[in-house]
TrEMBL record:
Family statement: Belongs to the universal ribosomal protein uL3 family.
Top-level taxon: Bacteria
GO molecular function: rRNA binding; structural constituent of ribosome
Protein name in UniProt: 50S ribosomal protein L3
Self-association state and partner proteins as the record states: Part of the 50S ribosomal subunit. Forms a cluster with proteins L14 and L19.
Record's keyword terms, sorted: Ribonucleoprotein, Ribosomal protein, RNA-binding, rRNA-binding
GO biological process: translation
Region (Disordered) location: 146-171
Biological role stated in the UniProt entry: One of the primary rRNA binding proteins, it binds directly near the 3'-end of the 23S rRNA, where it nucleates assembly of the 50S subunit.
InterPro entries attached to this UniProt entry: Ribosomal_uL3, Ribosomal_uL3_bac/org-type, Ribosomal_uL3_CS, Transl_B-barrel_sf
Amino acid sequence: MAGFILGKKIRHSQSITEKGIRVPTTFIQTNPCYLLGVKTPEKHGYFSLKLGFDQGKNINKSVEGEIKKAGVKTQLRFLREFRIEPYAGMVKPIEEEGKKGILIGENKLFIGDELKPSTLFKKGEYIDATGISKGKGFQGVVKRHHFKGGPRTHGQSDRERAPGSIGQTTTPGRVYKGKRMAGRMGGDTTTVRRLVVLDTSDTGLLIKGLIPGALGSLIRVRSSR
């Protein structure tokens, strides 16, 4: 089954499986999340869904107009697209009585409908969760790239967490692009794949394992390919 939804990380906890094993869990709140648009290869060159999530206060007029066009009265804070090409054959565009939408399995969703995890995901299914990892500021190579560091003895008083040599003495005589060095750590778009859905409801998902991002941050959830 193919499922797509936006949510935010609410809390970390733990749960006991049927075999008596304790596992970490993450609860993702998904309401309110609406289908705002469907892009098709014939008109746009690719197949994707546009979703809106989370109630906001101040949104710009272009976004507000897009939400009203979809027939949604809630002011949505986040708008994101999900590409559908990897799920070819599982999701199909449909149009009934002038309304455009999609067909996922036996479920019909039209533009303006609210998405609920209980209809898009099922217990035991694998999902991929994407978020922005926590920012950790400027860090050295030992913490950022797990470097071993220099020797602790033989007069090396200031080499313990140093990166060591970074270039050459001869041609090309420069530092290569992408060299692992000290710098800002975190704040990257990160995806954790094949997490198991432990439970679903109309308002959220309970996921086995931990996902990237701070509490309250935006999470993109889709079925594993």
